[in-house]
TrEMBL record:
This is Protein FAR1-RELATED SEQUENCE. InterPro entries: FHY3/FAR1 (IPR031052), MULE_transposase_dom (IPR018289), Znf_PMZ (IPR006564), Znf_SWIM (IPR007527). GO terms for molecular function: zinc ion binding. Putative transcription activator involved in regulating light control of development. One of its GO terms (biological process) is regulation of DNA-templated transcription. Transmembrane segments: none annotated. Residues 312-350 form the SWIM-type domain. The keyword Zinc-finger applies. SMART domains: ZnF_PMZ. GO terms for cellular component: nucleus. Belongs to the FHY3/FAR1 family.
Length: 354
């Protein structure tokens, strides 16, 4: 409350949100863009993803101001509610006030800027340029198709030089913080598959029909409860399906059975997509150093219509002595899903268990 007794800031989380955070709180997405209520107070949400890939809510707030001080208050209040357990990674938009608050409250958490918001700004920031369409196409190629840091750097430099945007303030500012948003720079960190604002966008579906700009505080508390009940019901249904049914396996390799037991049905389906992708992979052994094997695995990038885009290559490192394997695509580190390139090597090496 302020000096005149008017509502200033509100934070809300219940035992269900705290329990969900305890289990799935490694990565959170913080969003303030979903809606602003009739009192001109932004609705802030702390969002995560569960073991079914479903959106879950870790808490929310209504804010009177969007400055660093207010966000510090909100983050500290939320952190106290979550028993002081800090998230390992946080996704936000480019708001400087939010970034300042994160540096204060979550100094050791990986902080990533939401790619969707950056892409959304391209027409506004570059739309007036004569070569806008070509620049936009190259930017998308850099972001979504570059497989390594060097490729990202090379194409970015080419774009800047060929289209004379070396003095464009927005392009330069974006490049300076590329380690915060470019997939090739952040893919080695676990983000639970939150590659864009998909979780924050999903919060729209989470609350749509429950809260809106005209919702009062009393109604908000009631509807928050209703929205959570609906989500918990969906999670319970998915749990039941995973415990009592399974998808047919695509291969007879034993490690697929292991992962079927470890993953929920929804995540196992994503893993099976990787197994299907092995059909387009070819491998060759390029180095053998004692128990450490290095494989070169070629893969094919395909467009939205299934047309072949280009052939790319990844390195898979297998240490049979330490039972360790790693791929340069970093899908496992990023999403927790074993990639097709690793699967190809495991089958080649006749690995029975992982």
């Amino acid at each position: 409350m302020d000096e005149e007794g008017r509502l200033r800031n509100v934070f809300w989380a219940d035992a269900r949100s705290r329990s969900a955070y305890e289990a799935f709180g490694d990565v959170i997405s913080f969003d303030t863009t979903y809606l602003t209520n009739k009192y001109d107070m932004p609705f802030a949400t702390f969002v995560g993803v569960n073991h079914h890939g479903q959106t879950i809510l870790f808490g929310c707030g209504l804010l009177s101001k969007e400055n660093t001080e207010t966000y510090i208050w909100l983050f500290k209040t939320w952190l106290e509610c979550m028993s002081g357990k800090t998230p390992k990674a946080i996704i936000t938009d480019q708001c400087m006030a939010i970034q300042g608050a994160i540096r204060v409250v979550f100094p050791n958490s990986h902080h990533r800027l939401c790619l969707w918001y950056i892409m959304k700004k391209i027409p506004e920031k570059l739309g007036g340029l004569s070569e806008y369409k070509a620049i936009k196409r190259i930017l998308k190629s850099i972001i979504y198709e570059a497989v390594g840091i060097q490729e990202f750097e090379d194409i970015w430099l080419m774009m800047v030089n060929d289209y004379n945007v070396e003095k464009n303030e927005w392009v330069n500012s974006l490049y300076k913080i590329r380690h915060r948003w470019a997939p090739v720079y952040v893919k080695g960190i676990f983000w639970a598959g939150m590659s864009t604002t998909q979780r924050s966008e999903s919060i729209n579906a989470f609350f749509d029909g429950y809260v809106g700009p005209t919702t009062s505080l009393k109604q908000f508390v009631e509807q928050y409860d209703n929205a959570l009940k609906s989500k918990i019901k969906k999670e319970a249904k998915a749990d039941f399906a995973s415990f009592n049914s399974s998808f047919p396996m695509l291969t007879d390799c034993y490690f697929q059975k292991q992962l079927q037991e470890a993953y929920t049905n929804e995540i196992f389906k994503l893993f099976q997509d990787e197994l299907r992708g092995m059909l387009y992979c070819n491998l060759s052994l390029i180095k053998l150093d004692g128990q450490i094997s290095t494989f070169h695995v070629t893969d094919i990038f395909r467009g939205k219509e299934g047309k072949v885009r280009r052939q790319v290559a990844f390195n898979v490192y297998h240490n049979s002595g330490e039972l360790d394997i790693k791929c340069s695509c970093n899908l496992f580190e990023f999403r927790g899903i074993l990639c097709k390139h690793i699967c190809k090597v495991l089958i080649e090496k006749n690995v029975k268990e992982i």
